[in-house]
Every structure is written in C-alpha cells, then in structure tokens.
From TrEMBL:
SUPFAM superfamilies: Homeodomain-like, Tetracyclin repressor-like, C-terminal domain. Transmembrane segments: none annotated. Gene3D superfamilies: Tetracycline Repressor, domain 2. It comes from the Bacteria. This is TetR family transcriptional regulator. InterPro entries: Homeodomain-like_sf, HTH_TetR, Tet_transcr_reg_TetR-rel_C_sf. The keyword Transport does not apply.
Amino acid sequence: MPTTDKASSRDRLLGAAARLTYRDGVGVGIEALCREAGVSKRSMYQLFDGKDAMLAASLEQRIPRYEALLAHPEAEHATPRERILHVFEQMTKAAADADYRGCPYLAVLVELKDPEHPASVVARGVKERLTETFRAEAERGGAQDPHLLARQLVLVFDGASARAGAQVEHLDDGLATTTVTALLDAAGME
C-alpha cells in the first residue's frame, strides 16, 4: 500500500511541476508545488533529491506526449515535407490555446541558463532530437544542406513558439507554415 501512495504522490508532484512551471516559470517555489500536488515537503524530499530533480523528471515524463503531438499520424505514408510541415501545423494549433506559453523545453533552457542543470539536460535532449528529426527528414526529402535546413527549422520553431507564447505573435494566419514552406522550397526539398 505505501508504494501506491508514493507513486500517487510522485505523479501528483510531477503533474504540479508540469502545470506550475509551464504557467509561472521554473522559479516557482517548492511550497507552491507541494501545495498544488497536495503532498508534504517531507514526502517530496523522500521522492526526489530536490526541486531540480523533480523538474527534470517532470520534463522527462512529458516527452512521449510532446513528441507524439509533433509526429505525423500517418508518418509511413507522408512525405518528408508533409512530416515537417505537420510539426508546424501542430504548433500553430497549440498556440491558439489561451494558455499557450510556448515550447516548455525551450522555456526551461532560457530560464535556467545553466546547461548542467538536470532539467536543462532533459530539455536540450528534446531540442536536439527535434533538430535531428528535421535533419533526417530534410535528407530524405533531398534538401541541398540537410544540416543547415534542420537548424533553420528549429530556429523558426523556437522563435514562433516563443513569440506566440509571449502573446506578441499569432500563428493562426499560417505565418510559421508559410515561412517553413519557403525554407523547404529554397533548400530544394521535394
């Protein structure tokens, strides 16, 4: 029975960390996280080495859902161009939500500024995988310089999600996908 309680407390803490850090930033206090989760600080420290470890675990837990959201639902039948554009279409849909605050992984990297922080390591890994996904798709699609195109695509992704998350840009007019289409065309992508 105690194992179930700990798992439940752990899940509640990870969920609270996901919600509060996305909404308020990584500076949210342990007291607020524990209060949101309905878990004592003592229990939190029994489950995690500290807030840094809890934040990293929360980010890690969200990776499958995040990556599944960006993956084309019929990847095996889609062209590399369609798979790339799907990522930006999904971001555009997400950005339409009033609670959208941008890419949670980019936000962590920007806020923490410490590349060795456990949460930064997780977030950087997610961004590196996205870059590699773009590079592989660009290569499959015949881009002249797949590495450069991948970097350009991540730049558009991060810039568009950050600006939309800061509520200074609206993506519902197709700005991100139009920009990406121009990059794909310029790179000679099929």
